[in-house]
Design a protein that fits this description.
By secondary structure, the protein is mostly beta strands. The protein has a single domain, classed as Neuraminidase. It contains one helix and 28 strands. The N terminus is likely disordered.
């Protein structure tokens, strides 16, 4: 179903500023292309990396600690989010099969493929989950793309929205869902962020003149949303958005102008990726590991701890 969108509201520039520290995660030992996507309230991290060959594997780690690696199935494993219970969600493939499946991995190491009734859901991906164990994802069911919620490794319901091909990426304790959707009526500007709250979908685009797509990837219980926007050259620019104040804040990891923001925890720490690797953004320096002082000095030298530009806007409602 194609969405009906109202015009963007007028932007209001604010003088609000924020400072933070970026902690570099580094590579999983023996791997490369380490991609950090999730962080929980205990500062536990998840993501994936590439090992020998081209296969990807999941990892979990404490911020500043050692990596634990794991696989689900026999092909690719992509870990995307973790909650405070230590439950991890993502998707996997098996060797020799082009199909992919969504999974939950529990703190004791047990894994379960997501089912709808007694059937394992095919072409399914889980992107996020909250601390109550509710997850969000997408799947193909009877040749239709659906966005859905579930719990305890079971499909629960299809998300009811007016959006075209919505992709939900995160859900908080209040069951507010964020993600993005496609608008085929706008060539070259096909992605828009959305916030789904109490059954109402609100479009959210980063307020830049050269914005050519906005994607929302994370939300915490305080209503702080993370994401990135794409410029006319399809380069990524990370940001966070405060639902309470309708304020955007740009995020700039040291040494690279291009980055993406993903999961966010209760304290506002954000999992990020960039052309120079993965980082955790800490709103306050003391929230980063004590061993990162050298990294903080380097980050300050690169301009990472700085005042960040903020913009405020009232986003439109989707009918």
């Amino acid at each position: 179903m194609r969405s009906t969108c109202s015009a963007l509201a007028v932007l209001f520039l604010t003088s609000a500023a924020s400072a933070g520290t970026y902690f570099a995660i580094g590579e999983v030992p023996g791997g490369h292309s380490t991609t950090l996507l999730g962080i929980n309230g205990k500062n536990q991290l998840v993501g994936w990396y590439t090992g020998t060959g081209t296969a990807t594997h999941g990892f979990a780690a404490d911020l500043g600690g050692a990596f634990t690696t794991f696989d689900v199935g026999t092909g690719f494993t992509l870990a995307r989010a973790i909650n405070n219970a230590g439950t991890i969600v993502g998707d996997f493939t098996n060797q020799g099969s082009g199909e992919f499946y969504a999974f939950e991995r529990f703190a004791d190491g047990r894994t379960a493929a997501i089912k709808d009734g007694h059937q394992v859901m095919k072409e399914a991906v889980l992107f996020g989950l909250n601390n109550q164990g509710v997850f969000v994802g997408t799947a193909i069911v009877d040749h239709d793309d659906i966005a859905f919620t579930g719990q305890k490794a079971r499909y629960a319901a299809t998300l009811d929205t007016p959006l075209y091909l919505p992709e939900p990426h995160a859900v908080n304790a209040s069951n507010v869902v964020v993600g993005y959707f496609y608008d085929p009526g706008q060539p070259g500007f096909t992605d828009h962020g959305f916030i789904l709250k109490d059954g109402t979908a609100t479009q959210l685009d980063f307020p830049a003149a050269n914005d050519h797509g906005t994607r929302l990837n994370g939300i915490n219980d305080a209503g702080i949303v993370t994401g990135y926007w794409l410029d006319q050259h399809r380069r990524y620019h990370a940001f966070r958005y405060d639902m309470g104040t309708a304020t955007f804040t740009a995020l700039h990891p040291p040494g690279t102008p291009y980055s993406q923001a993903w999961g966010i925890n209760e304290k506002g720490l954000i999992a990020m990726t960039s052309a120079l690797g993965s980082f955790v953004y800490c709103p306050k320096a003391r929230q980063c590991p004590a061993g990162s002082r050298r990294g903080r000095r380097r980050a300050r030298a690169c301009g990472a701890t700085q005042s960040l530009t903020s913009l405020s806007m009232a986003p439109p409602i989707l009918g």
